[in-house]
Amino acid sequence: MSSVEAKSTAQVDSKQVADNNKSSTDRAHDDRPSFFKSLLKLRFKDMSIMHRVTMIQCITLFLFAIATGIVIYLNHSQKGINDPQQVALVQKIDSLSFKATDNLFSLTQISYSLAHNKDARNNIEQLRTALQQLENDINSIEQAITSLNASRLKNHLANDLLPELKNSSSNYIQQMYKMPESLKLGQQQVARLYEETSQKFLHPMLIVLLDVQTASSKTAFRQNAIANTTLANAQTYLVIGFLIVIVVSVLSLISIRKSLRNYTYELLDALRLIASGKLNGKITVRTKDEIGTIATLVNSFVTSSNNTLSLIKKDIDKLHLMVESNSQAISVTNDAISNQRNKAQDVASSTALMEKSVEKVADFAKATLDEVKIAEEASDTCRCTMQDNITTTHSLSDRLRATSNAILRVNQMGDQIDSIVKTIATIADQTNLLALNANIEAARSGEYGRGFAIVADEIRDLAIKTAQSTKEVNKTIKELSAAVQNCVEVMASCEDQMENSLQQSSRANSSIEEIMGIIATISDMSEQIVQSCQQQANSASEINLSIANILKLTEDSYETMTNMHGSMSALDALAYEQSALLEKFELSSKT
């Protein structure tokens, strides 16, 4: 198989593998169904993990929105029933009717006392006050009933009970006002009026008031029951919604946990096998979420790796065959060239006998001249390198001196800072003494110097803190000075060593220049010898030139073929190494 055909075959196989890899990757992206399609089919494991988390949040928000809407609706529906103003009116009617009943019992006791002539004057005043209070209570009840909104309670109270209550109360009050006048007619007349009034008006009015109390109480109880029922329903709806949210969340979390734990462990086990070189298996894709997509892409990678490695293995086998074929051809050619070289050497040896001495001298002179030129070039290179080394060493020495000077300036600045710190410490001590003296003078001044004493104490505290800070700064400066001194010593040692290096480099440069002078002299002498030998060997060289050219071409061809044979051996060894590396992978039998 030719190299052109092998190259074209390899390109076609590589393009086919690349197309298969691309198609498998596209299928891995296209296999996952859309979110709404998975939701309609209730295949939650086909959803992505982000879609599941988003679905849980949306369901939670939706259920809470429904529960909130139900609670708002129930509260809105209770506004008309449990209107606070209407509830207050019902309670007011209940309390007023109860109060009116109490007044009736009080009037009964007062009228009984009048009927039996017990403290008539006092009882008359109490009777009038109680009648006035009863009349006010009846009017208040009427106003409260009138203020009620249209309802069954209002219809019952206003149409059935209120007219009878007003009629009975009006007649009862009129008869009670007549009792003081009946005292003039005698005690029996008063007792008879009391009996008639009680039988005709008091008992019906008490019954009506009791009916009003009963109706208002029942309404209040019914309103409370409705409110309690509404509250219980709202709580029930909220609990149901909360339970549904918990169930949905638990189910979704179980699904996510299964995807993230079980499927991930399976994926990790498969990836460990792939990492160990086993490419003959595939991961079972159980879901179509992110884990399933990764598993599909890993399968695509395994398939593409199988295809690629199989193609490489085939190419290596082809390479073995090509190397073996080329090695055989090179061996045949090399043998032919070797025979030609031997014959050319025989002819050259027979024609070179008469010029043997000249050729030996010429060859020796040429070899000497070549070696001298090589030595001259090497010595020039060494001289340039040594000169660059000296220049670099000088530059480094100058930088070390500049660094040493900078460190010395830092040391001097540290001494200046130490002097300034000592001055600050002295000022702090003097300030402390002045503050102490000021405190003493303030103490002598008594009440007038108390404020100044406080200021003096603050100044003294500040002076003490300043003294402490200066001590710490002084300690830090001393440590810095020690470090700078150490740096100065190290820099001085580096400068000495750099000076020694400069001296050694200068001596080496001088020696190299002397060697270059000697080599130049030898080069001139070698050139003169070569010129003389060439002049003497021109005639022999013309005769032997054609044979020498043939021999040279033969030698070159033989060397080239030898190199090619070595390259083929190296290429064959490389192919065997690649084949051994491929043996570490367990490829699928299908590929």
Explain how this protein is built.
- Helix content is 90%, strand content 1%.
- It has 591 residues and is mainly α.
- It has 3 domains: 1-21 and 302-355 and 537-591; 84-223, Four Helix Bundle (Hemerythrin (Met), subunit A), CATH 1.20.120; 359-536, Helix Hairpins (Orthogonal Bundle).
- Strands 1-2 form a two-stranded parallel sheet.
Please describe the topology of this protein.
Elements lengths: L2 H28 L4 H6 L8 H33 L2 H32 L4 H28 L4 H26 L1 H4 L4 H89 L2 E2 L10 H62 L4 H90 L4 H87 L1 H45 L3 E2 L4
Parallel strand pairs: 1-2
InterPro entries: HAMP_dom (IPR003660), MCPsignal_dom (IPR004089)
Family: Belongs to the methyl-accepting chemotaxis (MCP) protein family.
Subcellular location: Membrane
Key words describing this protein structure:
Helix Hairpins; Four Helix Bundle (Hemerythrin (Met), subunit A); two-stranded parallel ribbon; mainly alpha; 591 residues; 12 helices; 1% strand
Shape: elongated
Could you estimate the helical fraction of the residues in percent? over 70%
Specify the structural class. Answer: mainly alpha
The CATH topology of the largest domain is: Helix Hairpins
Write the CATH architecture name of the largest domain.
Orthogonal Bundle
Strand content range: under 5%
Number of helices: 12
N-to-C span: 23 Å
Physical arrangement of strands within the biggest beta sheet: 1-2
Q: Could you name the ranges where pLDDT drops below 50 across 5 or more consecutive residues? A: 24-30
Q: What is the CATH homology-level superfamily of the largest domain?
A: Methyl-accepting chemotaxis protein
How many runs of DSSP E, i.e. beta strands? 2
Classified by CATH, the class of the largest domain is Mainly Alpha
Rounded radius of gyration (Å): 62 Å
- What number is the mean pLDDT? 71
Order of helices and strands: HHHHHHHHEHHHHE
Q: Tell me the major beta sheet.
A: 2 strands, parallel
- Count of the domains: 3
Main location: membrane
Pfam families: MCPsignal
GO biological process, one term: chemotaxis
Subcellular location: Membrane
